[in-house]
């Protein structure tokens, strides 16, 4: 291969490496444990990452074998996929920006309200009863609340109050703090005689392990809180990988253009020798 082809092949190989964390993040999101993965289709990130990897592989082979047509297709396809990736990252940041967590008075954990999240997420979860029933069944069957109930470290209520609960534990395994329930156990609470400030979730609470607060809006908010945490971690990885990918891709475009110029000059020089 010519020097320019070697440079182009090396750059396309770097692009190939940059697509690996994107594909890995998509696969991690799609296969992540927990019921939050049922809320939103995680597979688009995985599919986009795999497509980026395959296109980058085609570009590397095209540069290595000096197939200009293959390289041109690679540049156009990669530009389209990078644009889709950026659009997906912007969308994910937009829907994961709003936070439904709010501090509970005298507690180390947060309570969660559905109204705090983006309208799109609220509609996606609360607006589809069938989807929520699947998520609710997943939360109930995950054993999250059962494990919390079996935790023997909570000897006095203050120990529970000073525990940092996960969003699902806080939203689904206990009643909202505003209800004013009396602690009897992590998943066992006594209702007050009257609480005019209470919201609808207070009436939905049950000490039945099969019910708890699975029917509460706070449980939906807790699941969204878990999803938000997952997406914020993924967004950081995707953003870093996307910036690196764009940087190397732009360099690759310049190298491809220079290689074409060098090839044209070589042909012109070769033709003048005859």
Explain this structure to me?
This protein has helices at residues 3-31, 43-64, 68-97, 119-126, 129-141, 144-149, 157-161, 167-172, 200-204, 217-272, and strands spanning 101-103, 110-112, 182-185, 188-190. With 274 residues, the chain is mainly alpha-helical. It is built from 10 helices and 4 strands. The longest helix is centred in the C-terminal third of the chain and has 56 residues, at 217-272. The strands form 2 sheets. It has a two-stranded antiparallel ribbon.
Mean pLDDT, nearest integer? 82
| pLDDT < 50 stretches | none
**Sequence of strands across the biggest β-sheet:** 1-2
Number of strands: 4
Beta-strand fraction estimate: under 5%
Profile the largest sheet.
2 strands, antiparallel
If you compute it from the alpha carbons, what radius of gyration comes out, rounded to the nearest whole angstrom?
27 Å
- How far apart the termini lie comes to 24 Å
Give the count of helical stretches. Answer: 10
> What is the structural class?
mainly alpha
Overview features:
two-stranded antiparallel ribbon; Tetraspanin-2; 5% strand; membrane
What is the secondary structure topology, with strand pairs?
Blueprint: H1 3-31, H2 43-64, H3 68-97, E1 101-103, E2 110-112, H4 119-126, H5 129-141, H6 144-149, H7 157-161, H8 167-172, E3 182-185, E4 188-190, H9 200-204, H10 217-272
Antiparallel strand pairs: 1-2, 3-4
Helix pairs in contact: 1-2, 1-10, 2-3, 3-10
Transmembrane segments: 42-64, 71-96, 236-259
GO cellular component, one term: membrane
Main location: membrane
